[in-house]
């Protein structure tokens, strides 16, 4: 090393406070700055940094002119080392950067990405990563705390968080005997237990967990709350190719959803037959529904059918109900096939708009009433009312000739103001399927209802069931009190029709009166 080089290198500590080393062609340390002392305890030659160079000619490595990089740990500190051959080929210079804080921050970010911020346990992201990495038979149990939203809204989020922390501790305590099973929080009130057990031990494990939870309670400010939950289970078996690691979460989630629908505390995906085919069918009908709404008057389209409604006093057809059908290359599909797919994909407002458009064109040349089925999605659509009014205006059909048929359930009473806006715009209001399910008589009085459509499950038995007859009579009497007319659905034969007449119901609808058809009846 020349005097000038030695002088220059001696100044490096002031220029670069990080460790700097210079090695000669034999791999021995020729120079180090003062900062390099922190990493020299385990470095005696270049091969302590690059051990795989021992079998290579160091002169050739220097002559290649290539830079080399690696990381090096010195005690609790980590360094990024950048190795550069000197221009004259006399050795290798290594410049380093302390990356300890960077790695620590990176680790903290990884921890935050994989852990739930409230409970500290693994989160959904880590669960999905663990499922992907699983190479052995495993199971996934999703556990949903029943009514947790009510705890948040009734007691406040502070106690809600306290509830979750206590619940986490209970599960962690139970899992101490199961080191191969890990706990995750995958959403607000849904936890997951994932791990490996012998195939025949999964159900006994679930039984023990249920028995354990039955004995536990949550204490919120001295208030004791018993645990309620719903569980969904899915298994992954190496020899069972139909249950892949990537679909394990979906299957457990499907089992949980189905358990809720059936009001069960536990359900396994083995109890859900044909799940994959169901998914495929749902996707097929969702796609067909979307295409049908785009391809009006083509091979795949939505077609409005109209079912006549008989006025029993005049014995004349005075109104129709518009019913949606999906026509697929000449085959007419009833709503049962596609309506749920439209509901799930939020297409019902577009369906209602299409039905209103076709219906307005059909009824523009007569004075008859027609009814449109309007659901919760439609009522929540802020543009639906104005869209319907525009469609009717284009065909010069008065809104007073249109009946908005609303299926009665608990949600409609949260939208009383919206329904009254339809009424104020001229539309008539009918409550569909009245007499079963919700039937909130007190809240119904807050609506100015024009028609009550008596549920078909009552009407179809009215000729043979005294109970059904009395309920229908009660509904008819109630309708008189609120100045509403009644319509009997599912009038399938003459005996039912005569019983409906004797009760004093105003209108009848059903296959005995007329089947749904794209054309209206002639001569009426």
Describe the structure.
With 524 residues, this protein is of the alpha/beta class. Helix content is 38%, strand content 25%. The strands form four sheets. It has an eight-stranded mixed barrel with strand order 14-15-17-18-19-20-21-22, surrounded by four helices. Strand 4 (77-85) and strand 5 (91-98) form a beta hairpin. The longest helix has 20 residues, at 275-294. It is elongated and about 115 Å long. The chain starts with a helix and ends in a 15-residue tail after the last strand.
- Spans of 5+ residues with little confidence (pLDDT < 50)? none
β-strand number: 22
Give the biggest sheet.
8 strands, mixed, barrel
Q: What is the CA–CA distance across the termini?
A: 114 Å
Number of helices: 19
Question: Percentage of helical residues?
Answer: 25-40%
Sequence of strands across the biggest β-sheet: 14-15-17-18-19-20-21-22
Short description:
The chain has 524 residues and is of the alpha/beta class. The longest helix is centred in the middle third of the chain and has 20 residues, at 275-294. It starts with a helix and ends in a 15-residue tail after the last strand.
């Amino acid at each position: 090393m020349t005097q000038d080089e030695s002088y220059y290198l001696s100044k490096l500590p002031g220029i670069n406070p990080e460790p700097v080393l210079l090695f000669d062609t034999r791999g021995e340390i020729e120079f180090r700055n003062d900062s390099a002392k922190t990493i020299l305890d385990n470095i005696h030659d270049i091969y302590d940094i690059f051990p795989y160079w021992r079998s290579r000619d160091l002169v050739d490595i220097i002559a290649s002119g290539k830079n080399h990089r690696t990381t090096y740990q010195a005690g609790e500190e980590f360094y990024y080392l950048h190795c550069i051959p000197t221009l004259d080929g006399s050795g290798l210079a290594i410049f380093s950067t302390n990356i300890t804080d960077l790695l620590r921050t990176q680790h903290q970010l990884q921890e935050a990405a994989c852990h739930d911020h409230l409970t500290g346990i693994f989160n959904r992201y880590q669960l999905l990563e663990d499922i992907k990495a699983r190479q052995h038979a495993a199971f996934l149990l999703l556990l949903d705390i029943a009514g947790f939203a009510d705890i948040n809204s009734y007691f406040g989020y502070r106690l809600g968080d306290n509830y979750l922390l206590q619940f986490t501790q209970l599960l962690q305590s139970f899992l101490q005997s199961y080191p191969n099973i890990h706990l995750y929080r995958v959403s607000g009130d849904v936890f997951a237990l994932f791990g490996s057990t012998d195939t025949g031990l999964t159900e006994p494990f679930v039984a023990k967990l249920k028995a354990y939870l039955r004995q536990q309670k949550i204490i919120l400010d001295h208030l004791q709350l018993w645990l309620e939950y719903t569980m969904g289970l899915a298994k992954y078996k190496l020899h069972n190719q139909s249950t892949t690691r990537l679909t394990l979460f979906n299957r457990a989630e499907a089992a949980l959803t189905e358990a809720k629908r059936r009001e069960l505390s536990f359900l396994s995906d083995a109890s859900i037959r044909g799940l994959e085919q169901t998914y495929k069918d749902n996707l097929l009908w969702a796609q067909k529904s979307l295409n049908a709404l785009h391809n009006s008057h083509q091979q795949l389209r939505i077609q409005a059918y109209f079912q006549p409604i008989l006025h029993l006093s005049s014995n004349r057809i005075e109104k129709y109900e518009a019913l949606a059908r999906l026509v697929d290359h000449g085959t007419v599909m009833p709503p049962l096939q596609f309506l749920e797919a439209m509901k799930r994909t939020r297409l019902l407002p577009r369906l209602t708009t299409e039905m209103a458009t076709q219906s307005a064109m059909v009824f523009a040349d007569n004075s008859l009433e027609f009814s449109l089925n309007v659901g919760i999605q439609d009522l929540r659509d802020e543009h639906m009312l104005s869209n319907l009014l525009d469609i009717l205006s284009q065909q010069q059909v008065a809104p007073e000739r249109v009946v908005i048929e609303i299926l009665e359930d608990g949600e409609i009473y949260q939208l009383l103001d919206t329904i009254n806006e339809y009424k104020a715009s001229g539309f008539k209001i009918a409550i569909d399927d009245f007499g079963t399910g919700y039937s909130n008589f007190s809240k119904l009085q807050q609506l100015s209802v024009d028609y009550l459509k008596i549920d078909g499950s009552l009407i179809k038995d009215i000729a043979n069931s005294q109970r059904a007859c009395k309920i229908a009579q009660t509904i008819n009497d109630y309708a008189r009190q609120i100045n509403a007319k009644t319509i009997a659905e599912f009038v399938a034969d003459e005996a039912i029709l005569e019983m409906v007449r004797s009760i004093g119901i105003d209108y009848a609808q059903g296959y005995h009166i007329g089947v749904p058809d794209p054309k209206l009846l002639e001569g009426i």
